[in-house]
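Journal club prep, shared notes

We agreed each person brings one worked example of a sequence with its structure written out as tokens. Mine is Competence/damage-inducible protein cinA. I'm keeping it raw so we can talk through how to read the token line rather than staring at a rendered picture. Sequence first:
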Amino acid sequence: MKAAVLTIGNEVSSGQIVNSNAAWVSQELEHLKIEVMSHLTVQDDHRQILDAINFLTPHVEILMITGGLGPTRDDLTRHSVCAWLEDELTFDEESWQRIVARLTEFGVPVVESNRQQCYFPKSSRIISNAAGTANAFYAFKNGVHVWCLPGPPREIKTIWRDHIGDQLAQDIAQGVQGLSLFRWHCLGQSESALGEIVEEAIAGSTLTSGYRPHIPYVEVKIWSPDQDLGINKIYLERLEAAIRPWLISKDDNDIASKLVTEILPEYPAVKVFDLGSFGVLAERMGRATQEGQGPHFSILSQCQEDREFANETVLKTLELADPEVLTLSLGALNSNGAWTVGVAFDGFMKTTVLESPFKPGKRLDRFRKLQVEKTIFTWTQLLQDIKG
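Then the structure, token by token:
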């Protein structure tokens, strides 16, 4: 099954804001084994919207439209979709009463222009929006399923969670031949080098490859037709074995989230010494901490430019650590582009020296991201040694 995402809005087409909605919707569709063929952004213009719908619909079975459902004169999506459907707009009293109640609850004056958000194509199905005033709607024509969603990202995610995701999975995606996606996040090898390794591993299969560099990682993406999963299994195993030296995580798994929310909570207290990342480690671990979850841990940054004593400093922080406190330590880069990491707890202490596959060069900001990711991955391995 194939899909397209159409985004409506001058603020998007002009570059004033980044089109994050198209990226998020596409990822959700991909999880449902629906192949996204294209993204298209047009202005708040009736003719442009209608032309875009006519351009996209012959090539897909699903069209996701975001934006243009607001109360102002430039919100024209419902009018354009109605014209494509060759239908008429009808007023929905229930949507109006919901808008009045919501605005009154928040102390916002109800104005006549809000009525515009209550008109929907007669043949469409209205989808309630628990996060805003603009209800979404669903329509169908000539084999194409069309969802029209409001523009605010929070509202799109709420509507998707409450209605669309399950419906797509159960009513549309079920029984339709699709693609299965496999993803590996690799560290320490270039995109081009990984590409050669991957293509050699999957040669002769029906697998399709793709790559996405996101510093410091390279994501390897492989699609398999569902009917070929059995015969492609050996190629997928061969691929994973070939990239294992650089493999950090798979699919949506995040190594920092695993450390912070799964491993560290097993310890009564945690202290982290950052002697070399210049704040990158604290930002990364903080970002991985889910609000209200995870352990309480402290990060002490003592970054110094004197790198030749980095290994000695790491050893001291671990040797002097309270045995009842899990202590993690990250050292500074030495002149050879290597650094020491270690863990200590309950009389157990282990360190290792990590080396960069690349020269730091002038882009130390990028290099420190690599340093932090490799350190976190190594800590998880060392902590497994403690448990084992």
